[in-house]
Write a structure and sequence with these properties.
This protein is about 45% helix and about 15% strand. It is an alpha/beta fold and about 325 residues long.
């Protein structure tokens, strides 16, 4: 059984996790902006900067901020691992009742933080995702994003307009019970839903124009996004029962191929019985299509069987999310 992770004693009202890569110009400005917004609220808070292997002076800026303020914490990777890795380590270090994530490029506004926290604490949301309804990105970035978000809504059933928005708020329990890896940071709401956190809300947030540097993402992000969607959908539905997918597809293809071959054979016998000249069964292209269908169906079935054996012997086969228990 997967019991809830042991959490450290909560000593914070708020944790702000900021993954970054080569953002030396904006880090200090972002932190000062966060301070101006959060300090008057009299909350205990921490700002966790996760340096994803920056090659500029980003880490030196973070070290300087730490010397100036006890609210600053930093994590530095030896090399670039990606945003998901940064969020994972930031989530692991977070101690606040509410965890906010935001990008370091100043395109996410800290002015949104109080309302995001309120929605989590007072309205009971597990996750509140930002929606950059009005964006200041080029058309080549906004159109693929709209297509991507529409596809994810259809597949996941989660009615969010902007899955890619880095500005989100979480209950601490959520970030301690999900695993973000690879490029799966785009699908955190979906991963959380699969873990049993179904209260997912959305808030329209202000999108700022990029002030420094250039975007770290290109067109390949859209392609990777769709591939990751297939992965997370497959794992969520068939990760513990692969035979349901491969076995069903394999059986279907084998039956279609077998019936097609049977039809060809019976047709040949009918022609022979009525003394009608007919070409050989092996001269028909449908025979080879039927044969290939039966072979592929058998291979899919065996793949499902082997995957089922691996799944049944995996150490996480009984890994279930338990929110509470009474003994």
């Amino acid at each position: 059984m997967n019991l809830p992770k042991q959490q450290s004693k909560q000593i914070m009202d708020l944790s702000i996790v900021v993954p970054l890569f080569n953002e030396e110009e904006s880090i200090k400005e972002l932190y000062n902006w966060i301070q101006r917004v959060v300090s008057p609220l009299n909350w205990s808070y921490e700002v966790i900067f996760v340096d994803d292997g920056s090659t500029d002076t980003s880490w030196q800026v973070i070290e300087g901020l730490r010397q100036e303020s006890a609210h600053v914490k930093g994590i530095r990777f030896r090399r670039n691992y990606g945003k998901s890795a940064g969020l994972y380590c930031g989530f692991d270090a977070a101690q606040g009742d509410v965890v906010i994530t935001m990008d370091a490029d100043l395109q996410d506004s800290p002015e949104e933080i109080p309302e995001l926290v309120r929605m989590v604490k007072e309205e009971g949301y597990d996750i509140v995702s930002g929606w950059k309804k009005k964006r200041y990105d080029p058309l080549g970035k906004t159109l693929p994003s709209k297509l991507f978000n529409r596809t994810v809504r259809m597949v996941s059933g989660i009615k969010l307009h902007d899955f890619n928005c880095g500005l989100k708020a979480y209950k601490l329990d959520v970030v301690k019970n999900i695993e973000v890896y690879g490029e799966m940071h785009r699908y955190i709401p979906l991963i959380a839903k699969q873990a049993g956190f179904s209260r997912i809300g959305e808030k329209v947030v202000q999108h700022q124009e990029r002030k420094y540097g250039v975007s770290k993402f290109g067109i390949e992000r859209t392609i990777k996004g769709f591939l990751d969607l297939l992965s997370v959908t497959f794992i969520s539905k068939f990760g513990k029962r692969p035979m349901h997918l491969f076995g069903a597809l394999g059986t279907l293809m084998f039956v279609v191929g077998f019936l097609s071959a049977l039809w060809l054979g019976l047709s040949k016998l009918w022609y022979v019985y009525h003394n009608i000249t007919a070409r050989l069964v092996t001269d028909s292209p449908y025979f080879y299509i039927a044969l290939a269908s039966m072979i592929i169906g058998t291979q899919l079935f065996l793949a499902g069987f082997l995957a089922e054996l691996v799944s049944r012997n995996g150490h996480e086969r009984n890994n279930y999310q338990i929110s509470e228990r009474i003994d």
